[in-house]
């Protein structure tokens, strides 16, 4: 067996002992050593704990009715104190279940954990390289000073950074190459920024801290991206689609020195910014599934209004956690309506994961082996939701219409204690407690409102840190921790001072999301090319190494980004100009997305998508309706119809390239495509195809090839 396989077997045995609470002190230390030294081992630990909790819950609870038909809810509907009946019925999980859990999980993660080349990857001081700090005592407020030259040359198609990232021989590594270039150098701490520092100072602070990380890892950054690469990247990341040809040309032709900042401010004021971020957070809050009995549009309307008004992030979170009322009237209620099943276990897990960046679901059944997270803490958070009940309200029927119903969140005047069962079968009490603050369990205290206040208060940095980490990962593909929603002692951030300072400035800005986006997008790191340079080949997080952000990591478009971008390549007039006109188009997009979505009937209400290079996605791109719309020359206002009105083959190809890839073709690419068009047209006319139709089909082939290229589907 390889060393990787031996470690996997050892880790599996240790996890089984952990779940059975038979772990000795030496075994606990060995488990900590393995998990903290390998990102894949950390993911194995999280998956194992998650699966164990799911099986434990499913055996103990079985299926339960999610939503009862509504009856009037009285103020004293439920008893104040006494263990829940379902908890008293819960059975102790046998060792056979744990063995089955281990075996099933081994099969599930074997390929992902062992599929890497079997090589020795030695990292000295694995946690040391996650603490890049600075030597400067003051922040340089001059953003104009740049050490890396701006690139302005065109890139050959064969040398495109996205294509280079897929070449098998781009890393000429040996079997003993470490995951980082050398042992990181520890640098002294740096002075923090003053409260509410200027935007210029914040961006400069980001640049310096990222540069310190490069120095510590002994790597050099890639050159700056071209304007073509950057403008496409920022449109996709900020408003969720590629730019139109008019938008791209406007930026590329501008000679203003601050055109990057101007564009970011313009994008955050664009209606598509609102629809994009409301879509992102609707997906995070309730998933992509449209079959749940909740009001998806009401939730998205709430988010649309919040992002349009640039409401502070802590206010948005407060509303989501403390929401009351029915699904139609108060859209924020739909978040908890989707997760308040199984005694609010899913609601507990997703609330802390999304808003606080902590995964506590693994402590549902046992204490965390090597940090301070305990089983009692999970149930203390869970007790904040125990006053809340989901009911179905019947609406008054209108003349000739069938009576309808809707879900509602109702807070009961119920006090008392939450009880949970330990692995030894003992019932233990848990009281509402968050971050060391205990809340009264009296019936006249609305626990969810108290939890929302504690989570969103200015003194609690965890909300800000979690949001900064998630936003950084959105723009770079990787956050300061992996995974982004598992922050804590056991998972140190790669750039702790940068994360902390950005969180402080985010709080000082009033939790201003647009301001946070501008800081990130104006940083030097965000402007880097995705090409590997000779001195940063080790900066490749795909192979498990620590991200140093010395280049832009290639990301695949989400299904939503692909859909909206294909609308742009078909007809720029289809671009959404305001949200009132967007909902019907967004509904069509959601229907189209369902072919990729699969739900899991588990306690976490999880779902996955097959939008990851599968056959379904490939067929959608090759002959799906969206691509066919882009190739429709008869559609009024379509890109192809406008291109074919041009007389010059050069102009036609340049416009198709700009429309699909946001760049002009290189001279070599242009010459080759002109030759192909000529040959294709000659062949079609020889087959008795009318000359005009032959020309149209030839350019359709060129456009189809652009849309089906890796360069189109990837964000680079």
From TrEMBL:
Residues 206-389 form the DUF1549 domain. Keywords: Membrane, Transmembrane, Transmembrane helix. It comes from the Bacteria. The chain crosses the membrane at residues 92-113. Residues 447-676 form the DUF1553 domain. InterPro entries: DUF1549, DUF1553. This is DUF1553 domain-containing protein.
């Amino acid at each position: 067996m390889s060393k990787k396989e031996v470690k996997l077997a050892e880790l599996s045995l240790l996890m089984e002992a952990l779940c059975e609470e038979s772990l000795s002190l030496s075994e606990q230390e060995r488990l900590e050593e393995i998990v903290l030294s390998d990102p894949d081992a950390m993911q194995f630990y999280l998956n194992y704990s998650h699966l164990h909790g799911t099986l434990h819950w499913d055996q103990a609870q079985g299926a339960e009715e999610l939503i009862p038909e509504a009856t009037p809810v009285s103020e004293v509907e439920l008893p104040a104190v006494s263990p829940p009946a379902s908890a008293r019925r819960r059975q102790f999980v046998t060792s056979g279940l744990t063995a089955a859990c281990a075996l099933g999980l081994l099969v599930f993660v074997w390929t992902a954990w062992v599929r890497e080349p079997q090589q020795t990857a030695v990292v000295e001081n694995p946690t040391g390289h996650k603490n890049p700090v600075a030597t400067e005592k003051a922040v340089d407020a001059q953003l104009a000073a740049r050490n890396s030259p701006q690139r302005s040359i065109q890139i050959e198609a064969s040398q495109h950074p996205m294509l280079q990232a897929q070449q098998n021989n781009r890393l000429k590594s040996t079997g003993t190459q470490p995951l980082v270039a050398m042992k990181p150098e520890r640098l002294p701490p740096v002075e923090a920024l003053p409260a509410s520092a200027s935007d210029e100072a914040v961006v400069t602070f980001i640049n310096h801290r990222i540069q310190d990380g490069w120095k510590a890892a002994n790597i050099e950054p890639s050159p700056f991206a071209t304007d073509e690469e950057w403008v496409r990247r920022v449109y996709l990341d900020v408003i969720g689609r590629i730019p139109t040809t008019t938008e791209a040309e406007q930026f590329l032709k501008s000679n203003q020195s601050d055109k990057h900042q101007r564009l970011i401010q313009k994008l955050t004021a664009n209606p598509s910014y609102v629809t994009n971020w409301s879509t992102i957070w609707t997906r995070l809050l309730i998933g992509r599934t449209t079959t749940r009995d909740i009001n998806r549009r009401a939730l998205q309307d709430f988010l649309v209004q919040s992002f349009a008004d640039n409401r502070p992030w802590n206010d948005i979170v407060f509303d989501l956690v403390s929401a009351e009322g029915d699904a139609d009237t108060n859209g924020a209620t739909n978040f908890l309506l989707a997760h308040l099943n199984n005694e609010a276990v899913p609601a507990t897990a997703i609330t802390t994961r999304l808003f606080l960046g902590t995964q506590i679901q693994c402590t549902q059944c046992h204490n965390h082996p090597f940090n301070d997270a305990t089983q009692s803490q999970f149930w203390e958070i869970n007790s904040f939701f125990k006053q809340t009940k989901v009911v179905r309200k019947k609406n008054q029927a209108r003349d000739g219409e069938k009576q309808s119903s809707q879900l509602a969140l109702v807070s009961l005047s119920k006090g008392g204690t939450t009880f949970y069962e330990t692995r030894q079968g003992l019932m233990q009490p848990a009281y509402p407690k968050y971050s060391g603050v205990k809340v009264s369990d009296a019936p006249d205290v609305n626990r969810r409102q108290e939890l929302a206040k504690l989570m969103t208060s200015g003194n609690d940095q965890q909300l800000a840190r979690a949001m900064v980490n998630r936003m950084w990962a959105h723009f770079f593909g990787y956050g300061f921790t992996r995974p982004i929603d598992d922050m804590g002692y056991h998972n140190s951030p790669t750039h702790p001072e940068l994360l902390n300072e950005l969180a402080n400035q985010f709080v000082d800005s009033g939790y201003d999301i647009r301001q946070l986006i501008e800081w990130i997008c104006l940083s030097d790191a965000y402007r880097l090319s995705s090409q590997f340079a000779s001195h940063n080949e080790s900066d490749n997080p795909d192979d498990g190494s620590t991200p140093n952000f010395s280049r832009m990591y290639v990301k695949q478009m989400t299904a939503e980004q692909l859909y909206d971008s294909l609308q742009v390549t078909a007809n720029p007039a289809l671009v959404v100009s305001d949200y009132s006109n967007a909902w019907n188009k967004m509904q069509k997009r959601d229907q189209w997305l369902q072919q990729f979505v699969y739900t899991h009937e588990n306690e976490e209400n999880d779902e996955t998508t097959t939008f990851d290079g599968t056959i379904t996605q490939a067929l959608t791109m090759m002959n799906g309706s969206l691509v066919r719309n882009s190739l429709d020359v008869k559609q009024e206002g379509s890109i192809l119809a406008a291109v074919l009105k041009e007389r010059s083959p050069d102009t036609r190809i340049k416009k198709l390239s700009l429309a699909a890839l946001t760049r002009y073709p290189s001279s070599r690419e242009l010459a080759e495509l002109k030759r192909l068009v000529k040959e294709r047209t000659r062949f079609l006319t020889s087959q008795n195809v009318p000359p005009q139709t032959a020309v149209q089909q030839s350019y359709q082939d060129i456009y189809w090839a652009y849309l089906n290229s890796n360069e189109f589907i990837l964000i680079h």
